[in-house]
């Protein structure tokens, strides 16, 4: 892939950064992926019942909010030997081709998928290929599928004593894993996989598995890895995680890093190109349970960070309850239902962003026709501003990334003409002025 990076520098500050790609790859069977979003569903904690049937009742609400892809955390049975807590981790599978009875039956799941498709959703399921629980059926039928320690015991996965690792040198195991993935496509007609710890599994397995499974139908593949650290995996997956961004942005707020560190990191992500996409998020199941809610991590910039996640090049990813907002850490190995109310305070906020993502061509992720410019402002140490363009379509985003009020102006020729504020509907002519007065937590999103 050939890339062109255009930089304009004044002193040490980047005035504008245009990232363009001459790669013309377009995956037509899944063209929807460029304008989509992902909503992670924690079935266990979503309702008091914790079942597919109970969650199914919530889907019309999520459709109204603009959600496009439902990602379900692992739906397979949980291993009981050496399990954590009273319920165990859904990432410690006991069988790859059965349903966790805690959630319902296979027929319940099929019904939920069919209803999701009727409503216009895509459905992907979590796939845990690196390891299983201690009493997975394979430990009895095919113990040779597993890595072993010198004493012959199953090899415990790094830092997690409730799971044991599979041996990807075993070709029979690889084929059994591929067959298990095919099972869910054939039997339930899901639309893809979110692959847990994808970079812990040899990349050549994914290179083998994807075309084999897609003999049934084209699928969407989200991998849990950061392409800055594992670039070879980006050639296989449609989208990957942005772990480096998440950790750096967390440190930015908690440790007062320079905003320029975030801008420099965005340039590195953009340099990867558009053959794959990044998923941007402020929360997910791991972050919420172990490191805190987005409000613990990001404080006053939580909403600006959410706006960024929905408007930068890639795919926005939301976690169960963010539309409330959910202000608590959810237990991982116990029942801990989201404290739902009838007042979804963040639903309209996310609906505006998700519908803009779906409708404005300037926000297509992984599209070489879209150019993104980081903009120069008179407060470059506090304001993150950028504009994305695709032909006549443009989206301008301005975020207060500081913990103080800021008066500033954008000093950049990439902005001109009349835009509409997507949140209040007012129009603004940027030919007559580019001044802003922002309060703490302020953000603006304009479209042309």
TL;DR of this structure?
This protein has 448 residues and is of the alpha/beta class.
Instruction: Give the overall form.
Output: globular
Number of helices: 13
Strand content: 15-25%
CATH fold-level label: TIM Barrel
**Stretches with pLDDT under 50, minimum 5 residues:** 1-28
- Tally of separate domains: 1
Biggest sheet features: 8 strands, antiparallel
Fraction of residues in helix: 25-40%
**CATH homologous superfamily annotation:** Glycosidases
Reading off the top of the CATH hierarchy, the class is best stated as: Alpha Beta
Helix vs. strand class: alpha/beta
Rounded to the nearest angstrom, the radius of gyration is 22 Å
CATH architecture: Alpha-Beta Barrel
Tell how many strands the DSSP assignment holds.
21
Mean pLDDT across all amino acids:
93
Strand order of the largest sheet: 1-2-14-15-16-21-18-19
What is the rounded distance between the termini? 30 Å
């Amino acid at each position: 892939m050939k890339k062109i990076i255009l930089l304009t520098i004044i002193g040490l500050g980047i005035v504008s950064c245009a990232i363009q790609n001459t790669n013309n790859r377009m995956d037509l069977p899944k063209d929807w992926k460029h304008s989509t979003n992902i909503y992670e569903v924690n079935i266990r904690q979503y309702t008091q019942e914790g079942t597919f049937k109970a969650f199914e009742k919530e889907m019309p609400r999520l459709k109204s909010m603009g959600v496009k892809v439902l990602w379900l955390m692992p739906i397979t049975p949980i291993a009981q030997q050496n399990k954590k807590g009273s319920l165990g981790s859904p990432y410690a599978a006991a069988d790859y081709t059965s349903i966790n009875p805690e959630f319902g039956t296979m027929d319940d799941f099929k019904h939920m998928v069919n209803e999701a498709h009727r409503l216009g959703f895509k459905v992907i399921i979590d796939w845990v290929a690196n390891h299983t629980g201690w009493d997975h059926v394979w430990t009895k039928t095919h113990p040779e599928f597993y890595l072993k320690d010198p004493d012959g015991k199953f090899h415990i996965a790094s830092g997690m004593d409730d799971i044991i690792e599979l041996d990807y040198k075993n070709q029979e195991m690889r084929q059994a894993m591929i067959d298990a993935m095919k099972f869910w496509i054939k039997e339930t007609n899901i639309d893809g996989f979110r692959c847990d710890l994808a970079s812990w599994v040899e990349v050549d397995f994914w290179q083998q598995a994807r075309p084999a499974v897609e003999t049934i139908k084209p699928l969407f593949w989200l991998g849990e890895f950061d392409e800055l650290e594992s670039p070879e995996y980006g050639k296989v997956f449609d989208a990957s995680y942005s772990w480096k961004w998440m950790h750096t942005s967390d440190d930015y707020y908690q440790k007062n890093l320079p905003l320029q560190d975030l801008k420099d990191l965005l340039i590195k992500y953009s340099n990867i190109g558009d053959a794959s996409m990044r998923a941007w998020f402020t929360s997910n199941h791991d972050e919420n349970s172990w490191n805190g809610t987005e409000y613990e991590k990001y404080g006053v910039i939580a909403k600006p960070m959410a706006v960024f996640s929905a408007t930068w090049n890639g795919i926005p990813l939301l976690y169960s309850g963010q539309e409330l907002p959910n202000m608590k850490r959810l237990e991982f190995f116990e029942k801990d239902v989201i404290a739902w109310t009838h007042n979804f305070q963040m639903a309209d906020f996310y609906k505006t962003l998700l519908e803009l993502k779906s409708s404005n061509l300037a926000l297509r992720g992984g599209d070489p026709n879209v150019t993104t410019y980081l903009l120069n402002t008179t407060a470059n140490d506090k304001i993150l501003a950028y504009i994305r363009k695709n032909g006549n379509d443009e989206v301008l985003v301005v975020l207060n990334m500081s913990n103080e009020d800021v008066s500033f102006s954008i000093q950049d020729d990439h902005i001109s003409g009349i835009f509409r504020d997507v949140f209040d509907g007012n129009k603004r002519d940027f030919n007559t002025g580019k001044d802003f007065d922002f309060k703490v937590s302020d953000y603006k999103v304009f479209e042309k």
